[in-house]
C-alpha cells in the first residue's frame, strides 16, 4: 500500500480554497485510458493527485507506463474492470484504496455511444448503453461514496449536452445521459451531510476517437461546427479543466450541479442580423 499525506475534505476550513493544488489526494477515474477520460487523468496528475484509472482492456497498462514516465513513478495505476459489473467496480475501488490508502476524488467517466434509428433500436443495444453509462455510474458513485463517508470527498460524473439537447439516432445515449443528471442530483442531496459533493460536467462535441467520424466528415463536420459559437470543437483538456475545478477545494459549496462545456452550442439559435426586422 502506498500511503499519501492528505488533507481532509471533511470541512471547508481544513483545506486551502485556492482551487489550484490537489497535492497528495487520490483520484479514481473510470474509462481513463483515452479521450476525455485520459485528459482528466492527465489534468489531475498535473495538479498533484495520484490516480487509479480503469478500462476494460489490459492495454491500459501501457498508458500508465507513459503517465508515470511523465508525472512520476507510482503516481498512476491501471485497473481492468467493466463499470456495468458491480463486482468489477467494487474490486477496482477496493484496489485503489489498498494501493494509496484512501480515496478523495471520483470521476465517473466511462461510457459508450452506440447509436441506431429509434424504430430499429434493439433491446440489446439499449441495455448495453444504459448499463454502462447510467448503471455503471450508479455503481461507481455508490461504492466510492461508501469509502468516503465520514471523511468527505468529491464526485464528478461526465454526462453530456445530449442530456438536454438531444441528437437523432442516439436515443439510448440521450436517455442514459439525461438519467445521469437525475442520478447526480439525487446522490448530491443525500451525500451532502457526509461532506461529499456530487456534480456533473456535460461536454458538447469533443474531438476524440469516438467522435472522429463526424468531425472528419467533409459535409457533416463543417455543418456541425457552424453551430458552435466559439468556432472550434472541444478538446479533452476543456472538459478536464471543469472537472478539475469541481474536485478542487474551491468547489466545496457546489453540489448537485452541472457545468456545460460546449463552446456555446446549446445557448440558443443564431438568427442572422439581415433577416431581423427593424423596429
Structural summary, described in words:
With 279 residues, the chain is α/β, with parallel strands linked by helices. The protein has one domain (22-206, 236-261): Rossmann fold (3-Layer(aba) Sandwich), CATH 3.40.50.720. It contains 8 helices and 7 strands. It has helices at 35-46, 60-71, 86-100, 123-148, 171-191, 212-215, 220-225, 236-246, and strands at residues 26-29, 50-55, 76-80, 105-108, 153-158, 196-203, 258-261. A 7-stranded parallel sheet has the order 3-2-1-4-5-6-7, sandwiched between helices. Helix 4 links the parallel strand 4 and strand 5. Helix 4 packs parallel to helix 5. The longest helix has 26 residues, at 123-148. The radius of gyration is 19 Å and the shape is globular. The termini are far apart. The model is unreliable at 3-7 and 11-18 (pLDDT under 50).
Topology summary:
Elements lengths: L25 E4 L5 H12 L3 E6 L4 H12 L4 E5 L5 H15 L4 E4 L14 H26 L4 E6 L12 H21 L4 E8 L8 H4 L4 H6 L10 H11 L11 E4 L18
The largest sheet, given as strand count, sense and whether it forms a barrel, is: 7 strands, parallel
Instruction: Just give the CATH class.
Output: Alpha Beta
Domain module tally: 1
Assign the CATH architecture: 3-Layer(aba) Sandwich
Instruction: Give the topology string: H per helix, E per strand.
Output: EHEHEHEHEHEHHHE
CATH topology: Rossmann fold
CATH level-four homologous superfamily name: NAD(P)-binding Rossmann-like Domain
Question: What is the overall silhouette?
Answer: globular
Terminus-to-terminus distance: 71 Å
Strand content: 5-15%
Q: Total number of helical segments?
A: 8
Which strand order spans the largest sheet, edge to edge or round the barrel?
3-2-1-4-5-6-7
Low-confidence blocks of residues: 3-7, 11-18
Structural class: alpha/beta
How many strands?
Answer: 7
Rg over CA atoms, rounded to whole Å, is 19 Å
Q: Helix coverage percent of residues?
A: 25-40%
Q: Which oligomeric form is depicted?
A: single chain
Amino acid at each position: 500500500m502506498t500511503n499519501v499525506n492528505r488533507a481532509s475534505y471533511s470541512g471547508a476550513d481544513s483545506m486551502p480554497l485556492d482551487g489550484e493544488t490537489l497535492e497528495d489526494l487520490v483520484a479514481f477515474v473510470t474509462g481513463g485510458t483515452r479521450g476525455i477520460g485520459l485528459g482528466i487523468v492527465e489534468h489531475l496528475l498535473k495538479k498533484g493527485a495520484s490516480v487509479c484509472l480503469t478500462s476494460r482492456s489490459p492495454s491500459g497498462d501501457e498508458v500508465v507506463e507513459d503517465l508515470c514516465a511523465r508525472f512520476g513513478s507510482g503516481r498512476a495505476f491501471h485497473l481492468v474492470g467493466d463499470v456495468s459489473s458491480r463486482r468489477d467496480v467494487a474490486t477496482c475501488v477496493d484496489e485503489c484504496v489498498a494501493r494509496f490508502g484512501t480515496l478523495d476524488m471520483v470521476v465517473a467517466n466511462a461510457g459508450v455511444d452506440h447509436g441506431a434509428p429509434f424504430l430499429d433500436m434493439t433491446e440489446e443495444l439499449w441495455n448495453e448503453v444504459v448499463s454502462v453509462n447510467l448503471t455503471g455510474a450508479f455503481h461507481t458513485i455508490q461504492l466510492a461514496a461508501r469509502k468516503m463517508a465520514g471523511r468527505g470527498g468529491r464526485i464528478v460524473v461526465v454526462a453530456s449536452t445530449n442530456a438536454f439537447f438531444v441528437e437523432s439516432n442516439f436515443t439510448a445515449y440521450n436517455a442514459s445521459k439525461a438519467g445521469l443528471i437525475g442520478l447526480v442530483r439525487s446522490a448530491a442531496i443525500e451525500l451532502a451531510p457526509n461532506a461529499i459533493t456530487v456534480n456533473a460536467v456535460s461536454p458538447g462535441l469533443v474531438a476524440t476517437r469516438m467522435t472522429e467520424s463526424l468531425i472528419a466528415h467533409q459535409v457533416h463536420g463543417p455543418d456541425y461546427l457552424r453551430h458552435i459559437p466559439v468556432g472550434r470543437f472541444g478538446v479533452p483538456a476543456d472538459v478536464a479543466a471543469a472537472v478539475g475545478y469541481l474536485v478542487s477545494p474551491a468547489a466545496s459549496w457546489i453540489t448537485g450541479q452541472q457545468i456545460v462545456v460546449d463552446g456555446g452550442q446549446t445557448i440558443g439559435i443564431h438568427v442572422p442580423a439581415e433577416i431581423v426586422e427593424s423596429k
